[in-house]
Structures are given as C-alpha cells and as structure tokens.
UniProtKB/TrEMBL annotation:
<keyword id="KW-0812">Transmembrane</keyword>
<keyword id="KW-1003">Cell membrane</keyword>
<feature type="transmembrane region" description="Helical">
    <location>
        <begin position="71"/>
        <end position="89"/>
    </location>
</feature>
<keyword id="KW-0732">Signal</keyword>
<keyword id="KW-0472">Membrane</keyword>
<keyword id="KW-1133">Transmembrane helix</keyword>
<comment type="function">
    <text>Probably functions as a manganese efflux pump.</text>
</comment>
<keyword id="KW-0406">Ion transport</keyword>
<dbReference type="GO" id="GO:0005384">
    <property type="term" value="F:manganese ion transmembrane transporter activity"/>
</dbReference>
<feature type="transmembrane region" description="Helical">
    <location>
        <begin position="130"/>
        <end position="152"/>
    </location>
</feature>
<dbReference type="InterPro" id="IPR022929">
    <property type="entry name" value="Put_MntP"/>
</dbReference>
<keyword id="KW-0813">Transport</keyword>
<dbReference type="GO" id="GO:0005886">
    <property type="term" value="C:plasma membrane"/>
</dbReference>
<feature type="signal peptide">
    <location>
        <begin position="1"/>
        <end position="19"/>
    </location>
</feature>
<feature type="transmembrane region" description="Helical">
    <location>
        <begin position="158"/>
        <end position="180"/>
    </location>
</feature>
<dbReference type="InterPro" id="IPR003810">
    <property type="entry name" value="Mntp/YtaF"/>
</dbReference>
<keyword id="KW-0464">Manganese</keyword>
C-alpha cells in the first residue's frame, strides 16, 4: 500500500468518527481543547485497535479464501463505502442533544469503528502493513475527531454528512484499486 493510499484509507476510516464528533461538539456547546482531545483519543485508540482485530480474523481465514482474496477485499471495502454513503444521505439534519458520558462516548467510538474492523480483515488478504495502517487510522481519527468536536458547535449539521459521504467514496475507490492490482484489468 502506497503512502498516499494509506493516507486516504486513514482519513476515510475516520470520516464517520469525524461526523460523530461534530455531533458531540454541538452537544457540548463550547468544547474546550482538552475536552476535544480527550474525545479524539477515545475515538482514535478504539479506531486503531479494531483494524488489528479484523486483520487477525482475516489472517485466520486467509488460507480458505486465498484464490479470491482480492474479491473479498473489494467487496468488503465497497460494502463499507456504500453503507457510509447511505448513512450520510439518510441522516436527519437535526442534532440530538444527550448527556455526555464516558460509556456513551466509548459506545459511539465502537459503533463508528466497526467498519475499520472489516477493513482490517480485508487488509490481511493483500498483505498490508497492519501496524502502520492501524497507527495511521488511529492518528487520523484522533486528529479529525478533536477538530470535529471543536467545530461541532459552529458547523454541526452541515459538515458531518459530507465527511461520511466522501469517506465512503474513497473506500470504494481503494477497493477498486485492490481489484485492479490483483486482476491486472488495467
């Protein structure tokens, strides 16, 4: 995986967490930097762990699907990308105000990182450097959710939809690149 592809993957995997953090920032009214960084770290750590878990599952099943692993990677990445695009287009414009708790934050971070687990599984099939990928995803998520939290009270309902939509498109693009590289179509 090239550094540019890794960057695009990390940013696209962070898009749903970014969208969620905008909502969190809107709920906080005037989030402070340390609050935003704390939210970013929770999301980033969880988002960095889940691709590792997915990768382990992918490696365990790799010998069973080795002949068509590129199709598995393409299908998983495309399905996740399509789901992100669908979720971005179906979200309501209003922001729901809830009391902030650590458990709610962790549950939100886990929910937004499940796609990273599936991506981790697909990366096992293309022999990607999972440590570098997980660290890149975790760092991108920490930065993007911290920024999203700080911007949430100003841009809340406008930015989140676009971030998730673009992230979905990028994931589909990466899936297509994997398919092209392994099948030699172009």
């Amino acid at each position: 995986m090239t550094p540019v592809t890794l960057l695009f993957l990390a940013v696209s995997m962070s898009a749903d967490a970014f969208a969620a953090s905008i909502s969190k920032g809107a709920e906080l009214k005037r989030p402070r930097f340390h609050h935003a960084l704390g939210i970013g770290l929770v999301f980033g750590i969880i988002e960095a762990i889940t691709p590792l878990l997915g990768w382990v599952a992918g490696v365990a099943s790799q010998r069973f699907v080795q002949a068509w692993d590129h199709w598995v990677a393409f299908t998983l990445l495309s399905a996740i990308g399509l789901h992100m695009m669908y979720a971005a287009l179906k979200k309501e414009d209003k922001i729901e105000h809830r009391k902030q708790t650590l458990w709610l934050l962790v549950l939100t971070a886990i929910a937004t990182s499940l796609d990273a687990m599936a991506v981790g599984a697909s990366l096992a099939f293309i022999d990607a450097d999972i440590i570098a990928t997980s660290l890149a995803i975790g760092l991108a998520t920490t930065v993007m959710t911290s920024i999203g939290t700080l911007l949430g009270h100003k841009f809340g309902q406008f930015v989140g939809h676009w971030a998730e939509l673009i992230g979905g498109i990028v994931l589909i693009g990466i899936g297509v690149m994997v398919l092209i590289q392994h099948t030699g179509i172009l």
